[in-house]
From TrEMBL:
This is LARGE xylosyl- and glucuronyltransferase 1 isoform X5. In the C-terminal section; belongs to the glycosyltransferase 49 family. The chain crosses the membrane at residues 12-31. Pathway: Protein modification; protein glycosylation. It comes from Neomonachus schauinslandi (Hawaiian monk seal).
Length: 704
C-alpha cells in the first residue's frame, strides 16, 4: 500500500509540474517584459525608441527572452514525455520484418495523445486499473493470406468493431495480396481509434517451412508459432484470432481474462470441442499428442513477455522435431504443435470458457457452450439440415437471425377510439425508396414498414428521410430496419416484422410498389364496421390493377379507373403474365358491383387483403420471389377466413425495373426446383396442421 501511495504522490507531483510550468513561464515572460516599470514590446511591428543604445538593449532583451522561452518549452516537453512514460511503457519500435503501419484515428479528439496511447505496448493514458480501462489499447494478431482470407478478415474486424469500446491495434501477418487489399481498406475506412501494422508473411516462411503440414491453410497455418519473434519486443500480450472468427461481444471482456492468469500460465485456450485428439473418429486414427480433448487455437491469449523468457521458440521447435519423427507431418497445422507442447507442460495453459471459441464444424460439442436456450435451439435446427441438399441455403434462411432496429425514426400515433383504425403494412429495399412519399400522399393513416438495408444504406435512408418534407411531416409512419444477412431477400420475415408492430386493430397487407386510391383509409374504416370484421373471420380484398406508364394521371374514382381500363391505360394486375394470381377476384363482377361480394379460394390466389391484427404470420421458408403471398392466402383459407371483395376500393401497381430475385427465378433452374420443393413441403405441413380439409390444396395444385 505504501508503494502505491508513493507512486501516486510521484504521479501527482509530475502532473502539477506539467500544469504549473506554462503558468510560471507566462509570469516570467510577463515580468520580463517590463523595464524600469515600463513595458518592453517584443513585436518588431510596434514602434521603438530611436536611441541606438535603447534599441540595442531592447534587442538583447528580446533575444534573451526568446532563448528562455525555447528552453522552458523544451523542459515542458521533456516532463510531458517523462509523465507519459511513468503512466505507460516505452513506444513500440520497428524491428524484424515489421513493414508498414496505418492509423485510422480521425474524429477522436486529441489524436496525438491517443496515438501515443495506441503505440505504447499494452498501456494507455488512462493509467492502469484491475479491469480494462476504456482507453486501454487492445492488441489483436491475425494471420491472413490471399483474397478469401481478406474477405474473412473484414467480417471479423466488423464484428469486433461493432461491440468494442476500446482503441484497437491490429497486427496483421499478411502476404502481399492481403496487405494490398487490407491496407487500402483500412486507409479508406474512417474508423476512430484503430491502428493496423503489417508484418511480411513471406519473410516468415523460412521459420516454419521445414514442418510438413497437411492442413488446407498450408504454411500460413503455422505462423502463429513465431509470433513471439515477429511482434514488437515490448508488446506484452496479444489476442490471436483465426480469420473465420466472429465476435458476439466486446473483445475487452476477453482481454480482461489476462488478469486471471496465474503462476506460469502464458496461453489462454478453449478446449477442443471435437473428438479429434481422442483418436476415435475412425479406425487407425492417430492424432498428435494432446491433453485430454486438446485445445483449439482459433482463439489464443498469448502472454508474450513471459513466453519469451521461457524461450518459447526453443520449446516448440524441440517438441515439433521430436514428434515429427513419428508423425511425419501435422494434420491441424499449429494446433498440433501447441497441443504437443501443452501435453508436456500443462501448467502453461489457462483454460478459457468454451463460449469464447464456439466451434461450429461437424462432430463437435458446441451446443454445450450456448447459455441461451434460443441459441441452442437455433443450432439444433441448423444441425438437422443436410448441407449437401441443393436447397440447403433456402432452408437455412428461415432460421437466420437478422439484426433489427425497430422505430428507426420518431413514431407517435394513437389509434382512433372507435376501434376501426387500419395500418398499411409493407416491406421494401433501397431500390424502392422513391415510393415512400407517393404512398404517404395517398394514405393518411398509420403505416408500418420493414426496410431491408445494410448499415450504410440505413444511413442513406436516414439522410433521405430527414431531407423530405413529406416524410418528416408524418409521425404515424413506423420504419423498422432489418439488416442484410444472407443471399436471399427475406420478404416474409420483413412482412412479419412490419405486422408484429402494428398498433391498430386491422391491417392492410400491401406491397410498396402499389399506390392505394385516394380516400382508401377512410373507406376501409367504414367497411370494417359494415362487414363486422371485429366478430367475424373475414379478409377484405382490395382489387389490384397496374399501369405500364411511369407517368400516370391517377384515377380519382372507380368510374375514371374503368374508363382508363377500357382505354388500355390500366390493366388488371399481372393479367399478361400471371392471370391466376388475381383472377378469383372476378373483375368482371367488380365493374358493376355496388356491394361487397364473396369469392372462393383458388390455386395460386394472392390478393391484397385487410385483416384483423391477429391473423397468421407469413411463412418464412419462402424467400426472394415466388409463393410468398400465395402461401399466406392459403393459410387464411385453411383457417376459414371468408374472402370479401370491396366494390369501391382499388390499388394500382406502379412500374419499376425487375427485382434481383425475379431475375434469379427466371434464369436459375435450381432456384425454380427449390421453390417447387418448398411448395410441396408447405402443402404437406398444411395437411398435418389442418387435416382432411387441407387435401383440397394438393388437389388444386395438381389440377392447375
Amino acid at each position: 500500500m505504501l508503494g502505491i501511495c508513493r507512486g501516486r504522490r510521484k504521479f501527482l507531483a509530475a502532473s502539477l509540474t506539467v500544469l504549473c510550468i506554462p503558468a510560471i513561464t507566462w509570469l516570467y515572460l510577463f515580468a520580463g517584459s517590463f523595464e524600469d516599470g515600463k513595458p518592453v514590446s517584443l513585436s518588431p511591428l510596434e514602434s521603438q525608441p530611436h536611441s541606438p543604445r535603447y534599441a540595442a538593449a531592447g534587442q538583447r532583451e528580446r533575444e534573451s527572452l526568446e532563448v528562455r522561452v525555447r528552453e522552458v518549452e523544451e523542459e515542458n516537453r521533456a516532463l510531458r514525455r517523462q509523465l507519459s512514460l511513468a503512466q505507460g511503457r516505452g513506444p513500440a519500435h520497428r524491428h524484424g520484418n515489421h513493414s508498414k503501419s496505418y492509423s485510422v484515428e480521425e474524429g477522436t479528439g486529441d489524436s496525438e495523445n491517443l496515438r501515443a496511447g495506441i503505440v505504447a505496448g499494452n498501456s494507455s493514458e488512462c493509467g492502469q486499473q484491475p479491469v480494462v480501462e476504456k482507453c486501454e489499447t487492445i492488441h489483436v494478431a491475425i494471420v491472413c493470406a490471399g483474397y478469401n482470407a481478406s474477405r474473412d478478415v473484414v467480417t471479423l474486424v466488423k464484428s469486433v468493431l461493432f461491440h468494442r469500446r476500446n482503441p484497437l491495434h491490429f497486427h496483421l501477418i499478411a502476404d502481399s495480396i492481403a496487405e494490398q487489399i487490407l491496407a487500402t481498406l483500412f486507409q479508406t475506412w474512417m474508423v476512430p481509434a484503430v491502428r493496423v501494422d503489417f508484418y511480411n508473411a513471406d519473410e516468415l516462411k523460412s521459420e516454419v517451412s521445414w514442418i510438413p503440414n497437411k492442413h488446407y491453410s498450408g504454411i500460413y497455418g503455422l505462423m502463429k508459432l513465431v509470433l513471439t519473434k515477429t511482434l514488437p519486443a515490448n508488446l506484452e500480450r496479444v489476442i490471436v484470432l483465426d480469420t473465420d472468427i466472429t465476435f458476439a461481444t466486446d473483445i475487452a471482456e476477453l482481454w480482461a481474462v489476462f488478469h486471471k492468469f496465474k503462476g506460469q500460465q502464458v496461453l489462454g485456450l478453449v478446449e477442443n470441442q471435437s473428438d479429434w485428439y481422442l483418436g476415435n473418429l475412425w479406425k487407425n486414427h492417430r492424432p498428435w499428442p494432446a491433453l485430454g480433448r486438446g485445445y483449439n487455437t482459433g482463439v489464443i491469449l498469448l502472454l508474450l513477455d513471459k513466453l519469451r523468457k521461457m524461450k518459447w521458440e526453443q520449446m516448440w521447435r524441440l517438441t515439433a522435431e521430436r514428434e515429427l519423427m513419428g508423425m511425419l507431418s501435422t494434420s491441424l497445422a499449429d494446433q498440433d504443435i501447441f497441443n504437443a507442447v501443452i501435453k508436456q507442460n500443462p501448467f502453461l495453459v489457462y483454460q478459457l470458457p468454451c463460449f469464447w471459441n464456439v466451434q461450429l464444424s461437424d462432430h463437435t460439442r458446441s451446443e454445450q457452450c450456448y447459455r441461451d436456450v434460443s441459441d441452442l435451439k437455433l443450432q439444433k435446427q441448423l444441425s438437422e439440415l443436410d448441407e449437401d441438399d441443393l436447397c440447403y441455403e433456402f432452408r437455412r434462411e428461415r432460421f437466420t437471425v437478422h439484426r433489427t432496429h425497430l422505430y428507426f425514426l420518431h413514431y407517435e400515433y394513437e389509434p382512433v377510439s372507435d376501434n376501426t383504425d387500419v395500418t398499411l403494412v409493407a416491406q421494401l429495399s433501397m431500390d424502392r425508396l422513391q415510393m415512400l412519399e407517393a404512398i404517404c400522399k395517398h394514405w393518411e393513416g398509420p403505416i408500418s414498414l420493414a426496410l431491408y438495408l445494410s448499415d450504410a444504406e440505413a444511413q442513406q435512408f436516414l439522410r433521405y428521410a430527414q431531407g423530405s418534407e413529406v416524410l418528416m411531416s408524418r409521425h404515424n409512419v413506423a420504419y423498422h430496419i432489418v439488416y442484410k444477412e444472407g443471399q436471399f431477400y427475406p420478404v416474409n420475415l420483413l412482412r412479419n416484422v412490419a405486422m408484429k408492430h402494428v398498433g391498430t386493430p386491422y391491417m392492410f397487407l400491401s406491397d410498396i410498389d402499389f399506390l392505394p386510391m385516394y380516400g382508401l383509409y377512410e373507406y376501409l374504416r367504414k367497411s370494417v364496421i359494415q362487414l363486422d370484421l371485429a366478430n367475424t373471420k373475414k379478409a377484405m380484398i382490395v382489387p389490384a390493377f397496374e399501369t405500364l406508364r411511369y407517368r400516370l394521371s391517377f384515377p380519382k374514382s372507380k368510374a375514371e379507373l374503368l374508363s382508363m381500363l377500357d382505354m388500355g391505360t390500366l390493366f388488371t394486375f399481372r393479367y399478361h403474365v400471371w392471370t391466376k394470381g388475381h383472377a378469383p377476384t372476378n373483375f368482371a363482377k367488380w365493374r358493376t358491383a355496388t356491394t361487397p361480394y364473396r369469392v372462393e379460394w383458388e390455386a395460386d390466389f394472392e390478393p391484397y387483403v385487410v385483416v384483423r391484427r391477429d391473423c397468421p404470420e407469413y411463412d418464412r421458408r419462402f424467400v426472394g420471389f415466388g409463393w410468398n403471398k400465395v402461401a399466406h392466402i392459403m393459410e387464411l383459407d385453411a383457417q376459414e377466413y371468408e374472402f370479401i371483395v370491396l366494390p369501391n376500393a382499388y390499388m394500382i401497381h406502379m412500374p419499376h425495373a425487375p427485382s434481383f430475385d425475379i431475375t434469379k427465378f427466371r434464369s436459375n433452374k435450381q432456384y425454380r426446383i427449390c421453390l417447387k420443393t418448398l411448395k410441396e413441403e408447405f402443402q404437406q405441413d398444411m395437411s398435418r396442421r389442418y387435416g382432411f380439409a387441407a387435401l383440397k390444396y394438393l388437389t388444386a395444385e395438381n389440377n392447375s
